[in-house]
Amino acid sequence: MNNSSPANSNQYKNGNGTAREGYYRRLFRRFILLTLLCSLIPLLLVGWGINNYYTRFARNRMMLSFHTKVENHRKIIELFLKNRVSGLQVIAKTHPKEYLVNVSNLAHVFDILNSEYRSITDLGVIDERGRHLAYIGPYNLMDKNYSKAFWFKEVMKEGVYISDMFMGFRKVPHFIVAVTRSENGRKWILRATIDTESFRSLVENVRIGKTGEVYLLNRSGIYQTSPRFSGKIMEKASQPLGKPCEGIEVRMEDKSTNHAGPPHPRQLIAFGWLKQPQWMLVVRQDYSEAFNDVNHANLAALVFLVLSACAILIVAVFITSHMIKIIKKRDLEADGLNKQLMQAGKLASVGELSAGVAHEINNPLAIILTERQILMDLAKQSPLLPRDFMDQFNNSMSQIDMQIQRCKRITENLLRFSRRTKSVIEPVDLNEFLCEVINLMEREARSGGIKFLTDLEEGLQTVLSDPSQLQQVFLNIITNAIDAHEGKPYGSIRIRTRNDSAKAGVSITFEDTGCGISPKNLERIFDPFFTTKQVGRGTGLGLSICYSTVKRLGGDITVESELGKGTQFTLFFPYNPPADLQKDIEDVHTF
Amino acid sequence: MLGAKILLVDDEVVFTENMSKLLSSRGYRVATANSGDEAIRNLERENFDVVVLDLKMPGMDGLTTLKEIKKLDLFTETLILTGHGSIDSALDAIKLGAYDYLTKPCEIDELVAKIEGAWGKKDEEVKKDIQEKIQKVVESPSSVFDVFPREKK
Hints:
The structure holds two protein chains of two kinds. Helix content of chain A is 51%, strand content 18%. Chain A has a five-stranded antiparallel sheet with strand order 2-1-5-4-3, sandwiched between helices. Among the domains of chain A are: 95-198, 2-Layer Sandwich (Beta-Lactamase), CATH 3.30.450.20; 293-415, no CATH class; 423-590, Heat Shock Protein 90 (2-Layer Sandwich). The radius of gyration of chain A is 59 Å and the shape is rod-shaped. Mean pLDDT of chain A is 84; it is low at 1-15 and 586-591. By secondary structure, chain A is an alpha+beta fold. Chain B has a single domain, classed as Response regulator (Rossmann fold, 3-Layer(aba) Sandwich). Chain B is built from six helices and five strands. The mean pLDDT of chain B is 87. The A-B interface holds A 355, 358-360, 362-363, 365-371, 373-374, 377, 404, 408, 411-412, 415, 418-422, 591 and B 12, 14-15, 18-19, 21-22, 25, 56, 83-88, 91, 95, 103-108.
């Protein structure tokens, strides 16, 4: 017995267990990789495709919305300026100069113009030489002469004029709207200054988030309103101007730090030219803000994608582990079957071999026996032989006989393999039967200090089986159990019977307190000629015969053992014998 | 009184010789044959009470020999003595009409007991046959030559 082996209660230990584990790990990784590849690649492709399409779609929509914004806003500003001009024109055409130069009349008109919307800061009447004839407003400009002012020249020439932002006499940025009227061959001008603040609020009355700004530039690129971030009114803008045109342009402006204005990130910019005056309306917004919704949607998609990938991973791991578990189980079952097959194969080949060997040995044995008999006969007929010789002769003869009988037992055992013994099947009460077997063995057990303990289930169903074969199996197992106690002063053999209705049979357990069997030996325990007993004491056939007998009777035999603690044989016999055994019975009956 | 007339059939010459000595010293009249063919030839030539037959022999094996013996329709009982302890072939032999079987190696006394049994059975068979024949002759005396044909020389 191998004492260094660890205690083991498994029936069989798989020798290449670690290699198997490695194989299962590789299989696991391969399955996971394959599952992930098969599911993630399509997912990523679909995700990428949808994201791409949606981003492009959203960008176009956003640009269209910017386009519309600028277009509408341009209309509003143009309408505002047109209204102011028309207002002045109506007043100039319907009121004579004499009426308007009266300050109270002018104040009345000023109030009418501002009644609905306070859009005019001041109002003045100016003669053809540039002198103020009347003025109503917060500044003291009555003594100012505008004959040199650029707007004066323009309005005298064009009849209607809207100026760019300028500082003028009042030294604050403002712009004016002026119209002329000819009365009695002499021109006079009605001039109004547009309220910078109200104009600014009108221009900026577009809702464009936190980073958006709206402003106006004149043809020279001077800010006509203060943008939120880019600069101040009257300052020169860094933005390049194109030629004034009808349409509206929307474009993406990349991150910029190179021009004079403050650096800004990537921006969406839309602009269009007003007709009169030729100002450029600019709307711009940071790209990140403009596309906030798209970015949110993309982020949500990404989160969804990651979650899906995680879910796939978890499901893949779960399914793969489950599959590996099934494969392991199948492999174990296959191992079990293989072992049974190998055992059966070993028994079959040994069976064939032993039949031949037994026959070949039996013949010489028979001859030896006849020779012995001849010598015995001769000795009997010769009474004069010396006494000493006769004593030795008789001794030798009985020894020869004993050894022949021993050989005969061995060959009989060998022949049991090849023999398909005809069975005598009858109902057997296993409880009663086991008690008989125990009675047979009790004396031998007692001499070894071993007690039988029985735990027999009451009402145990009878099985249809061959009593003589059963007896052989039980005797063999009990003899082994008794032998396992060698060197121990006392011990016990516990025999337990149970109905196993699920498998339709009876299970019998023989549990001894003997020396146990090492895992290495446990693997070979049912092999023919395998014995741990001293030479001459065991043939190594007992348990092999048990194994083949139990299998032939349609049952099963398993063994569990722990070195130093004991061994447990569990036998199972079906209530009804298998079909081929029943056929044997019929054969016997017909004979 | 003479012992039974025995034909020992076994391919092992030493075995047949030894057995012949042992049985002769116990009062039997023994002839030996070392093959099935030889046995059949012996049986065709003279009558034996008991044939002790080995099953496994080269050439004609024991079962075939047994069939041939049965074909001869003699008043002879066959005892199977075989080293091949297969119950199947022994049972087959008994089905074919063998008296009993023994496995090698067996004690001489055991064999003698079986031979006595076989011889006794053979005698009974002969007696029964004669009685039946006498009965027939009594019932129909004209059939005496049909029942007891003249022996051919």
